[in-house]
Amino acid sequence: MKSLHVTLIAIAFGLVTSCNSANEQDTAVAATESNTDHAAMDHGAGQSAVADDQSQQNVVQVAAGSKDHTTLVAAVKAAGLVDALTNAGPFTVFAPTNAAFDKLPAGTVDGLMKPESRKDLRNILQYHVYVGVIPAERFDNDMSLGQVNGGRVNLGLEGDQPTVNGVKILASIPTSNGIIHVIDQVLLPQ
């Protein structure tokens, strides 16, 4: 009987020791993985650096995949807003097409892309973003939204056609962090 107790104690001690050793190894592996993650974060990469090919695309990824929004994407990059717009949101983004930017006076886009114009560019781009999701089906006359830059836009309907500040919504695209409403004019804050 005494030898049975000694044997059981030895087995229990062996199990506890092996579990602790396995836990220490798991902790070491987790610490290594965590340090690797922190090392990636130390390089200044934000949310936009997260690789995910399986989830629905966010507003920046959708715009970047559109041949009609290359100017908008370049402007978002120049303004330093990529990480902000890849965050969870939700966002309603009024996305001017390349043709919309082409309607601006000659030299305007080039001037806004210069580092010394970054504040003005950010103001214009943030005037195109609302925090929250407003699908086109919810647009109604006399609706007003407070935009990220502090300005306001007016939503409405021309017949069945949704508008923002009188500009028609050409298409609406749901994203993982909101919705994009494609427009053919650049909205300028007052």
UniProtKB/TrEMBL annotation:
Segments forming domain FAS1: 56-187
SUPFAM superfamilies, per database record: FAS1 domain
Pfam families from the UniProt entry: Fasciclin
Signal keyword on record: yes
One term under GO cellular component: extracellular space
InterPro entries: Adhesion/Biosynth-related (IPR050904), FAS1_dom_sf (IPR036378), FAS1_domain (IPR000782)
Leader sequence segment: 1-22
Annotated keywords: Signal
Claim: rRNA-binding is one of the keywords in the record: no
Record protein name field: Uncaracterized surface protein containing fasciclin (FAS1) repeats
Species of the source: Pontibacter lucknowensis
Lineage, uppermost ranks: Bacteria, Pseudomonadati, Bacteroidota, Cytophagia, Cytophagales
